[in-house]
Amino acid sequence: MLIFFPLNVECISLAGDFAQPVCLPLPGEIFPPKTTCIVAGWGRIKERGQMASVLHEVQLNLVDPAICEHILQTIRPGLQNLTVLCAGPERGGKDACQGDSGGPLLCPRADGQWVVVGITSWGKGCGRSWINNRMKPLTGRSSPAVFTNVPVFMKWLLRKGRIISQLSVQEGALKGSEGIIRYPVHPGQNYSNNEACSWSISVPGSKRILLEFLKFDLENHPLCQSDHLTVFAGEGLPIGRFCGSKSPAPALIHSNTTTLQFMSDFSVSGSGFSLRFRAVEDNYTLGPGCGTVALFQSPVAMQSPEYPRSYGDDTHCRWVIYVPEGYVVKLDFADFVLEESEGCQYDSLSVFRDFEAREQIVVLCGQSIPPPVLSFGRVMVVQFMTDSSVSARGFSANLSVISRKDLQNGEHEDLDEEENDDSGLLPL
């Protein structure tokens, strides 16, 4: 049995052999292709068959979004701005079917929590193969199971569900060159459980946003999936998710808008957080201790702190780079001298394919200039960390943007050569 809870409750702990909790996703949360998920329902077991008399389930793997869009356009040409996701094997044989609509698509997080990632919506046929779909007559084409993409709608769901949640702090739009956000507002209070709050910050158009954390005390979780504060830039691009009792390092966002979103679960609370936002010039840089830098420009130079002088001890620098859909990030090194160690356990430069830094592409150290590194998608995270002893000259690198189409054809052209945007900002 699956149990759904009110929108202002993210997760409920429930023990039992036959009833288990299910969680709502985070807004924009991404589950990678090939994630094995479960569909449940009382629909037909085979196409044009009888309706099921008992609840059934089937395991389906998520389909790559680009493949999903391609297949659906062979059935419904002109589909754009999809708010759906697909699941099921290309060869067919396993699928949702008529009568399953409205049921859940449940996918596991890395920590084992089950999440409602999709709602069964539609499909062409039941369990048919969709290999070489375009080569078939229109009436013979099929599709994987199609689901409403719940993470895409979570902001809307939370807004609509908030009528039953009493927030402990004023939300809304914050405009100006400087300000402070305190949550909760009054000192000495802990924030409540089952809350969802957001603040939108805008500074003058030519400025960038600096976030400085003054106090931070949230429930801790290894993956920040209990109580957490998520920072978004531009049009909902996640920059970082924070939890625990250690104040995050400053965040420099190369955009004039950002959104902060706080969510708490059903248990354990802390004294909350306070932070200062400031409008800074485009050429502003963080200090030698570093922090998080969010970039949306190309090309961009990237260097270790104090380069070409030696970087300091206990440094933690993080760059989050976003490019438009259909492009990837290329990282080229001009110089590279870091303390060398087995497994790069002391000083290191790590590159990831996701903003949460879970999916590592490569980890680097030593004194040899590495080959170029490519992202797998539109986001790349570069993380530079040092220990408390032995430093070196550091690194100097350049970020550029490559069209995925050109990359597949064996040639590439940097985006800044084909776009003529005086602002230098990529069209996100």
Automatic annotation (TrEMBL):
<dbReference type="InterPro" id="IPR001254">
    <property type="entry name" value="Trypsin_dom"/>
</dbReference>
<dbReference type="InterPro" id="IPR043504">
    <property type="entry name" value="Peptidase_S1_PA_chymotrypsin"/>
</dbReference>
<dbReference type="InterPro" id="IPR009003">
    <property type="entry name" value="Peptidase_S1_PA"/>
</dbReference>
<feature type="disulfide bond">
    <location>
        <begin position="290"/>
        <end position="317"/>
    </location>
</feature>
<feature type="compositionally biased region" description="Acidic residues">
    <location>
        <begin position="413"/>
        <end position="422"/>
    </location>
</feature>
<dbReference type="Pfam" id="PF00089">
    <property type="entry name" value="Trypsin"/>
</dbReference>
<feature type="region of interest" description="Disordered">
    <location>
        <begin position="408"/>
        <end position="428"/>
    </location>
</feature>
<dbReference type="GO" id="GO:0006508">
    <property type="term" value="P:proteolysis"/>
</dbReference>
<dbReference type="GO" id="GO:0004252">
    <property type="term" value="F:serine-type endopeptidase activity"/>
</dbReference>
<feature type="domain" description="Peptidase S1">
    <location>
        <begin position="1"/>
        <end position="162"/>
    </location>
</feature>
<feature type="domain" description="CUB">
    <location>
        <begin position="170"/>
        <end position="280"/>
    </location>
</feature>
<dbReference type="InterPro" id="IPR035914">
    <property type="entry name" value="Sperma_CUB_dom_sf"/>
</dbReference>
<keyword id="KW-1015">Disulfide bond</keyword>
<dbReference type="InterPro" id="IPR000859">
    <property type="entry name" value="CUB_dom"/>
</dbReference>
<keyword id="KW-0677">Repeat</keyword>
<dbReference type="Pfam" id="PF00431">
    <property type="entry name" value="CUB"/>
</dbReference>
<comment type="similarity">
    <text>Belongs to the peptidase S1 family. CLIP subfamily.</text>
</comment>
<dbReference type="InterPro" id="IPR033116">
    <property type="entry name" value="TRYPSIN_SER"/>
</dbReference>
<feature type="domain" description="CUB">
    <location>
        <begin position="290"/>
        <end position="402"/>
    </location>
</feature>
<protein>
    <submittedName>
        <fullName>Ovochymase-2 isoform X1</fullName>
    </submittedName>
</protein>
